[in-house]
Specification:
This protein has 353 residues and is an alpha+beta fold. The protein has helices at 14-29, 69-76, 82-94, 115-132, 193-203, 219-223, 231-240, 253-258, 279-288, 292-298, 314-323; strands at 36-37, 46-47, 57-65, 100-110, 135-143, 153-164, 179-184, 211-212, 217-218, 243-248, 266-271, 303-309, 328-336, 344-347. It has 2 domains: 12-167, 60s Ribosomal Protein L30, Chain: A (2-Layer Sandwich); 171-347, Phosphoribosyl-aminoimidazole Synthetase, Chain A, domain 2. Strand 1 and strand 2 form a beta hairpin.
């Protein structure tokens, strides 16, 4: 009588999973804050709230993934930066309300656990957590044989942060006369990759390995450029200037995301001439004959985070961002309007786009 069925025979390797955990431990340890209790490997992660730092703390949470940008990473066989994107998408949503990220947990679903690949992914997650100042306290890696191809994976994460109750940022703080500052993105970030792949790979049939003169590197390298993480920059501005709101520019573009923090009696009047979109956006638009409204809805167009603040603090904020090596632009101002007016008006034409 032959041997019976095994878990490994069905496509799941316990040994590979344990090897992956051993390989990622050094990455998680470098992210730990003093509040972290214990290490990875338990059924739950523990984090001691620093209650002495707050009068009336409010917890904030955010969950997100990297979308189909992971398909580019898989096609390029480059896995040590996609984790930075994962962290960015989560923590920069948290800081939009003024919250300091405390800790993050990831979820990696894959067709087969390849320990070296998992370790590369988590190394990027750890790098992102270090940039954001939050701890990577745990997560889950799940094999899905039969549901996902062997080489495929998808990423998601949840982060928890804290903000004082009376320091929460948002539309209730925004006033007429406030100024909108835009912080430059590092590239496409992690939204719109279904269109990127459709235009550049399906329609134009370009090769990810092909060198692109405008970028000074290959197309794949440009598309894998990690998201800029703005968390610590935003927290610094909150401490030193009168910030009223942030908007993380992700799916929906500049207008769609900024509108989420504008009250119904105001309109943000922005000037496209204030900044020049990065070359990658013109490259996508040109190869796909993508019209401007579609580009501005799908992509960040070179602005990854916006800050709405009191006009007297604009010079101070710009100086802080310059010192922190974050290119930034004064995009426009908040004006009184009525409830039927658009929340965001984009005027003018981008230079050289």
């Amino acid at each position: 009588m032959g041997s019976g069925a095994t878990y490994e025979g069905s496509g799941v390797s316990i040994a590979a999973g344990e090897a992956a955990v051993d390989m990622i431990k050094p990455f998680t340890e470098k992210t730990h804050r003093p509040e972290v209790m214990g290490g990875i490997g338990g059924f739950a992660s523990l984090f001691r709230m620093p209650m002495n730092k707050y009068r009336e703390p409010v917890l904030a949470s955010s969950s997100d993934g990297v979308g189909t940008k992971s398909a580019i990473a898989q096609a390029m066989n480059v896995h040590d930066t996609i984790g930075i994107d994962l962290v960015a998408m989560v923590v920069d949503d948290l800081v939009a309300c003024g919250a300091e990220p405390l800790f993050l947990q990831d979820y990696i679903a894959c067709g087969q656990v390849i320990p070296e690949k998992i370790a590369a992914i988590v190394s990027g997650i750890a790098d992102g957590c270090v940039k954001a100042g939050c701890a990577l306290v745990g997560g889950e890696t799940a094999e899905h044989p039969g549901l996902m191809a062997r080489e495929d994976y998808d990423l998601a994460a949840t982060a928890v942060g804290v903000v004082e109750s009376d320091d929460i940022l948002g539309p209730d703080r925004v006033r007429a006369g406030d100024v909108v500052i835009g912080m430059e993105s590092s590239g496409v970030h992690s939204n719109g990759y279904s269109m990127v792949r459709h235009v550049l790979l399906d329609i134009a049939r370009l090769q990810l390995e092909g060198h692109v003169e405008e970028f000074g590197r290959t197309l794949g390298e440009e598309l894998l450029e990690p998201c800029r993480i703005y968390t610590q920059d935003c927290l610094r501005l909150v401490r030193e200037t009168d910030v009223h709101a942030y908007a993380h520019i992700t799916g929906g573009g500049l207008a769609g995301n900024l509108a989420r923090v504008i009250p119904s009696h105001l309109t943000a009047r922005l000037d496209r001439r204030a900044w020049t979109p990065l070359p990658v956006f013109g490259y996508i638009a040109g190869h796909g004959r993508v019209q401007r409204p579609e580009m501005e809805q799908a992509f960040n167009m070179g602005i990854g985070m916006t800050c709405v603040l009191a006009p007297d603090d604009v010079d101070r904020a710009m100086a802080i961002l310059t010192a922190r090596h974050v290119p930034a632009y004064v995009l426009g101002t908040m004006e009184a309007s009525d409830a039927n007016a658009p929340r965001v008006l984009l005027e003018g034409e981008h230079p050289r786009f």
